[in-house]
Write a structure and sequence with these properties.
globular; three-stranded antiparallel sheet; alpha+beta
Amino acid sequence: FVKNLYSAYEQELCNVSGIQFVGKQCPDREHGAWLCTILAEDRCALQTKLSEQRIESNQVHFRNDRYSIFDSYCEDGGYPNMDSMEDHYLTLPLHPKVRVEDVQKICRLIREG
């Protein structure tokens, strides 16, 4: 059932300006559908908009290099690709209590900008 929700998100968000659906660029793999992750140009504004509609979204995982135990592993130039990803990624609700109608509402709000 959750894979159906994931597919609904994918279909609804595939051509939305400012949104990139994470996982779509790997057609040779099947997504596990345990998280629905997008990259949003303005993640903070989108997260605020969803929150105002009582829709939870968040960043789920944080980079290991942010923890002091890994300080010695950080390169002088940093990790610009990781920085970009972390500044833009957002997970959307994807669990058995979410209905297709919920996904459609969430996607409509995202498309509204």
